[in-house]
Write a structure and sequence with these properties.
By secondary structure, the protein is α/β, with parallel strands linked by helices. 27% of the residues lie in helices and 24% in strands. Strands 7, 14, 15, 16, 17, 18, 19 and 20 form an 8-stranded mixed sheet that branches. Strands 8-9-10-11-13-12 form a 6-stranded mixed sheet, with helices on both faces. The chain has a 4-stranded mixed sheet with strand order 5-4-1-6, with no helix packed on it.
Length: 419
């Protein structure tokens, strides 16, 4: 019989010491295991944790007789669930947003520019980098322009990323520094928005963002570490216990592993890396650090852009921009060999696709790769668990792909809200 003498503890970050958090007795409310009834009880009464491992899950009557050394937590009727995982987040971007000009929550272009003016006054030197704005519900009903940025921060290099990460507004000084003018041709998979006179408005979409990437301040390792610390704080504060880090920079994987080993990663991280590290990951296979606290086992690729910035690849023209059907970021010839290499190495693939044309393309290309590399040649066999990130806009005729193929429709709710 378990003791009724309770040690009051809070299930919040930092509420208990590391030692007590490793040894727990939890009871007093419905405890959901997340398992199907065929495998184990879906709901139990007691959880016992020793040295950071769950050693018992079950009814109160069957709990271990030796409960010494445990911090006892009475849920007092509250429910306990397995840790919630953020299935799609950009951990570095979340952190940098906190350390730079954060435009999240701006209710108008005017408010965003007021924040920019304040930041410019407080930070009179160097380029200004910010992110988080989204025009969807602004009264102005339009993207930010170079003219907005020039008025708020005259003469400054300013780069302000849209919330979805698929467009950046650049000031005149930034455009000039990057050599972008009326004659500049956008790279494949990108767009330089221009006004009726052919003058760049300052908005650079998808691949065109790379034209100003060299203007971003070059962060040193300690600054990058601080950005990840901030990202971890934000994710943990929302209650996430794990995060699928999409487009994790390959160069940052060792840093994240070091942070985990040093106890600086309060939540689990599953890395889906940028393509520049794909060949090396395929060659070495999955990697893990700090007892699985950081796992790197996937590569993130892009088929199209985002709907809000009109980069999502559609079969039909955009209703408010009939001159475009969005942007494709790659071709079958470029991407299918990567898919096949991933299958042969056992590395998971997550491909960004939002528009119906983008989704149809990636599903077709997945099917081609799966045919070329049969299950017998794959370390993971038939269960590759490939993902289409967002899978946001689909023709009904394409629903069948998610039934016939071993792929997951990995929806990110915040994206359609923003779009």
């Amino acid at each position: 019989m378990m003791t009724r003498t309770l040690l009051l503890a809070l299930l919040t970050a930092g509420a208990a010491s590391t030692a007590s958090a490793q040894n727990l007795l939890i009871h007093g409310g419905p405890i959901y295991t997340g398992l199907s009834a065929g495998d184990a009880p879906e709901r139990v009464e007691v959880v016992v944790v020793r040295e950071g491992r769950i050693v018992f899950v079950g009814p109160q009557w069957a709990a271990p007789s030796d409960l010494s050394g445990l911090t006892e937590i009475d849920l007092k009727g509250a429910a306990l669930f397995p840790g919630f995982t953020d299935g799609h987040a950009h951990l570095d971007g979340i952190g940098w947003r906190e350390l730079t000009l954060n435009l999240e929550g701006s209710e108008s272009a005017a408010e965003a520019m007021a924040r920019l003016s304040d930041w410019a006054e407080a930070n009179p030197e160097g380029p200004i980098v910010g992110r988080g704005w989204i025009e969807t519900h602004w009264p102005e009903g339009r993207f930010l322009t170079r003219d907005d940025l020039d008025a708020a921060a005259p003469g400054r290099i300013v780069l302000l990323g849209r919330a979805d990460g698929h467009a950046v507004a650049a000031s005149s000084a930034a455009l000039a520094a990057a050599g972008i003018d009326e004659t500049t041709v956008a790279p494949s998979g990108g767009e330089i928005l221009k006004d009726a006179g052919g003058r760049p408005t300052g908005l650079l979409v998808d691949a065109a963002e790379q034209l100003v990437a060299g203007l971003m301040p070059q962060a040193d390792v300690e600054a990058t570490r601080e950005a990840y610390r901030a990202g971890f704080r934000i994710e943990a504060a929302y209650g996430w216990t794990g995060v699928h880090f999409m487009s994790a920079p390959w160069r940052d994987v060792p840093l994240l592993e070091q942070m985990a080993e040093a106890g600086e990663a309060p939540i689990r991280v599953y890395n889906s890396i940028t393509p520049d590290g794909a060949a090396e990951l395929f060659a070495t296979g999955a990697r893990s650090a700090a007892d699985g606290r950081v796992i790197t086992r996937a590569v993130k690729l892009y088929i199209d852009g985002a709907l809000g910035s009109r980069g999502a690849a559609l079969f039909d023209p955009y209703a408010d921009a009939p001159e475009t059907r969005g942007l494709m970021q790659t071709t079958a010839e470029e991407i299918i060999p990567i898919y096949e290499a991933a299958l042969r190495s056992g590395v998971q693939v997550a491909t960004h696709a939002i528009g119906d044309r983008g989704n149809a393309s990636v599903a077709l290309w997945y099917s081609r790769a799966l045919r070329e590399v049969p299950a017998a040649e794959r370390p993971n066999g038939a269960d590759v668990r490939w993902r289409i990130e967002h899978a946001q806009i689909l023709r009904p005729a394409d629903y069948q792909w998610f039934v016939e193929l071993p792929i997951i429709a990995s929806m990110q709710p915040s994206h359609p809200i923003g779009d």
